[in-house]
Design a protein that fits this description.
five-stranded parallel sheet, about 130 residues, 5 helices, globular
Length: about 130
């Protein structure tokens, strides 16, 4: 039996983590969380991650973008790992920070769950009401 595929949610705000976890799990997704870029890398290596949803700016070492670049360089993680970046920055500024990549989406905060649903569908092919 194959290992379950997880969505890894990364944000330093516990309220956002709780809200997103509850929303995605109630839609039937398996979810794990991390609170900074370093924990994101450690968590992703320990589980089968099918999608990362990450804040861009977080305290600690590195950004969400740095963590994703590192993850995608590891032999145990696909270089095409789908990623949704979320940010409170202006979307124009955030676009300058993230790589141009067909497997990456950007959404603003506060989160619009319909926009999140569309991004998940585009990146994974899975469409579940949130």
């Amino acid at each position: 039996m194959p290992a379950p595929v997880y969505i890894l949610i990364v944000d330093d705000d516990p309220m956002i983590l709780d809200l997103m976890t509850a929303t995605l799990e109630s839609a039937g997704y398996r979810v794990t969380t991390a609170t900074d870029a370093w924990q994101e890398v450690v968590q992703a290596q320990g589980l089968k991650i099918g999608l990362v949803i990450s804040d861009i700016q977080m305290p600690g070492v590195g950004t969400g973008v740095d963590a994703v670049k590192h993850l995608r360089s590891l032999p145990t993680i696909s270089p095409l790992l789908p990623v949704i970046f979320m940010t409170g920055l202006s979307l124009e500024r955030a676009r300058e920070m993230i790589p141009k990549d067909p497997k990456i989406r950007l959404i603003g905060k506060p989160l619009n769950f319909e926009e999140l649903r569309v991004a998940i569908r585009e990146l994974t092919g899975i469409d579940r009401p949130l």
